[in-house]
Amino acid sequence: MELHPHDPRNAARPLSVWLCNAVCLTAIFAAALFLTGCAQSQWTVGAASVGASAADENSADPSAAGSAYLPSLSPKVFGRCWVATADEVGAWRTWRGGEYVPCSEEHTTYTYAAEDLPAELLDEMRASTSDAADSALQVRIDDAIRDICGSRFDDLFPRLTERQVLVQWFSFLPTDAERDAGARWVRCDVAQYAPDSGTGELELAALPASIHDLVLASFTSPDDFQYCRWAPGSSADVGPQQTQGSQPTACTESARWLFDGMHPLGYPEEAPYPGEEALVAAANATCDAAARLRGEVQAPSGWFYYPSADSWDEGGRTAACWSNLDRVG
Q1: Alpha-carbon distance 220 to 152, whole Å?
Q2: Domain map (residue ranges) of the chain
Q3: pTM of the full structure
Q4: Could you tell me the mean pLDDT of each successive run of 10 residues in the chain, 329 residues long?
Q5: Residue 46 and which of 140, 230, 263, 272 are 20 to 30 A apart at CA?
């Protein structure tokens, strides 16, 4: 199970104020909280290192999009609604939340696709024990899941960018018993985070009775799905993960930091760990370029988070970028 495409276990520093190895939502959101250090830099940005574990202008029709993706071995779950918490869906590799509920009742996830994984993975999946598949197989499975769930999600929400991360997709694989019976499908669910839940944590919001309403909102008000953080008495000179009491919040005038996306640092998977200094420079340049490409900031300022050595070994090759809202021109 993963939150796509965000895993916040990085390091932070301001970008000259952006140079810290930072974090993101539950995998910015939860996985991002393994910071190793922080410093400051101008774009004016901050940076830190974090560890890692692991769109078309036309309207989208989820019914039409999803119904075409149901091969014979896939469970007939497209269009069904389910109830689970953010912690649960972020941790589950297989669905453990019980039966689906009518979409007219309160629910937090919606199945927008269910499709068979590549046939060649079936025997390997069945031969491996539960979640104890070897790492190479796990990478192949994760890539196949991303190809299915990620691409269907992009079809459904083409207007959402790397900044509008409060709408996320989750994947669920067959249980051991289902796998032994030959199942090789992946189920793809969409959920929305509610940053202003009042708990100080990112919780899942109740979804509308019709998924079309969420799709429509992604077209008409995409910025409603941006992720911001705030803390009482916080300073723009300290990053969002280094400030005591920092918590998710709606992106209103009171917000201090705006999540600006996860961006690749340009290193291939096989590259050896380049060292903190090289990663700070790469993350600084990457987040600076990402902000300037938006054309929304005159004096960019923010923080970034880059991979720690452990995160690098686990495949981390991205920077998490944050803008300081009180320094945005």
Answers
A1: 20
A2: 10-54+226-327, 62-156+166-219
A3: 0.72
A4: 29 33 37 35 42 33 35 68 92 90 96 89 68 70 92 94 91 86 90 79 92 95 89 66 74 81 90 94 88 62 87 89 71
A5: 272
